[in-house]
Design a protein that fits this description.
The protein is an alpha/beta fold and about 500 residues long. It is built from 15 helices and 19 strands. The radius of gyration is 25 Å and the shape is elongated. Bound molecules: manganese (II) ion (MN).
């Protein structure tokens, strides 16, 4: 995965018209360039902002939006109506545009110069009605977009734009993304399944199945020298359990795990995959369940879902991309077990093995423990705790007629006591608004037990992402009231049924 998002571009488009004359348009253009420079210099803005000439005719608008579609690096357009830009001019361009839109509803001058204001000033600062004309046509076309209102020098505005840009890059990354489903689904499990054809139509990524034998083949091709180097690297990076040290009775498990990691990475790189799934029910030819291999691949940026969960694999990848460069990690996660003491109800999140060390606090230890299921050699895994702070759990389900995203912020807290006998990476959190309301709402919404968990991604990023993807988004947070939430689900059923119609 890339270290930053500067290879991606957001194009800055300014709407105006010829009514005001050349002098005014020159002013519009220089104002617009000044805003672009401000955004370019903002520490919050993650992508490259590209200035485009002021748009004053239907043809120029259509042309630039077609160019945005075809541009390899453009992830979306920032639109600003400096002056009044009659919105019929935008119709044909918007009809063909297939990239995300943010409507920056700002004005060049922040304050009204009360004592000196005249009609010349008014003509140069008329976003107040220019933006409404543009908003009308987008609404009439039922076009999803983010609207950001405020002065362009305000840091909060930069942050909102940055949030949208992160969502737009993650969306861009999903287009034509390849997901390897290694083995199939965990038998009889419902929520990890879904319509892969519909997902490709809706989201742009493809999910295709591979036999475990394909992975085994790649693993068997790994040379002894590479394995030796890899074992050394693991030993230098993590605190090894004594049995994994040289001469330890589980040393061979570590060597085998290193081989599995190298082979899996070779396979994923050769196929240009960005996300993958595994299932412990199909491990033919593998000596152990890939534990640390999955953990380390996730830390490199691969999306992952266990038990064939390709929707969560895609989601984890998107959350990793959108949080590029931000503090805090992102992982595949599962609501594992509850602490139901009414004095402080919380969730312990973990998985059998596959939690991403990007969320680890301090140095991880590399351990080997028996795994009760799967009937294989004891797998190697990284064990760690997670620092306290704000987190979020997100889930995407296939509801049969649509995809639903569920978003629930949480506070990551310390475990009440140390967990010396729990040999997996784990997180303890208190969901918003509280566990009983959150779990009740989550279950009414049909939320999965698997999630994308992040300490860098925000609700607003997911909201922007869901808008771009044009899917249902349900929020469980401080404002959630169960009675209202149930109504929202029922109303959404009706809305999506009608809005989908024959053409999804
Ligand atoms: Mn699971």
């Amino acid at each position: 995965m890339e270290k930053d998002l500067k290879n991606y571009e957001a194009w800055f488009l300014t709407g105006s018209q010829h009514l005001y004359g050349e002098d005014t348009l020159k002013k519009v253009s220089s104002n617009s360039q000044e805003i672009v420079n401000e955004l370019k210099n903002s520490l919050h803005i993650p992508v490259t902002i590209v200035y485009k000439p002021v748009l004053t005719t239907p043809d120029s608008i259509t042309k630039i939006l077609q160019e945005a579609n075809n541009s390899k690096n453009c992830v979306g357009i920032i639109t600003w109506m400096h002056t009044f830009s009659p919105a019929k001019m935008w119709i044909n361009g918007l009809k063909v545009l297939n990239k995300p839109i943010v409507h920056l509803h700002t004005q060049y001058n922040r304050d009204i110069p009360w004592s000196s204001i005249d009609m010349d000033y008014m003509n140069l600062n008329q976003s107040a009605h220019g933006g409404r004309e543009y908003g009308y046509i987008l609404s009439r076309m039922r076009r999803n977009r983010k609207v950001v209102v405020g002065h362009w020098k305000n840091e909060e505005i930069h942050k909102k734009l940055a949030t949208w840009m992160r969502a737009a890059v993650a969306w861009y990354d999903w287009q034509a993304m390849k997901i390897a489903r290694i083995g199939d689904n965990m038998r009889e499990v419902a929520v990890t399944e879904g319509d892969k054809v519909e997902a490709e139509l809706k989201f742009g990524y493809s999910v295709n199945g591979y036999g475990v034998g394909d992975i085994v083949e790649a693993i068997n091709l790994v040379s002894g020298n590479r394995i030796k180097d890899q074992v050394e690297l693991l030993a230098s990076e993590y605190k090894l359990s004594p049995s994994l040290e040289e001469g330890g009775n589980k040393r061979n498990n570590l060597i085998e795990a290193a081989r599995i990691e190298l082979g899996m990475r070779d396979f994923l790189e050769a196929g240009n995959f960005k996300a993958f799934t595994t299932t412990f029910e199909d491990l033919h030819g593998l000596k152990q369940l890939p534990g640390h291999a999955v953990q380390r691949l996730m830390a490199e940026g691969y999306g992952f879902g266990a038990e064939g969960d390709w929707k969560t694999a895609a989601l984890v990848r998107a959350m990793k991309v959108m949080s590029t460069g931000l503090e805090g990690g992102t992982s595949f996660m599962e609501d594992y077990t509850y602490h139901m003491d009414p004095a402080g109800m919380k969730v312990l999140g973990a998985h059998m093995l596959e939690v991403c060390p990007s969320i680890a606090e301090g140095k991880s230890s590399m351990e080997v423990h028996e795994l009760g299921i799967g009937d294989k050699d004891d797998p190697i895994r990284l064990v760690f705790d997670v620092a306290m702070g704000q987190g979020i759990n997100v889930s995407i389900m296939d509801m049969g007629d649509r995809f639903r995203m569920l978003i629930n912020p949480c506070q990551v807290v310390q475990a009440d006591e140390p967990l010396p006998n729990l040999p997996v990476a784990r997180v303890v959190w208190m969901p918003e608004p509280d566990l009983s309301t959150a779990a009740e709402a989550w279950i009414h919404a049909g939320g999965a037990h698997h999630t994308g968990f992040s300490m860098a991604v925000t609700s607003e990023m997911m909201e922007d992402f869901a808008e771009i993807a044009d899917i249902e988004a349900l929020f469980i947070d401080k404002d959630t009231i169960i009675r209202e939430f149930k109504k929202e689900i029922r109303w959404n059923d009706l809305y999506y049924h009608l809005a989908g119609g024959l053409k999804k």
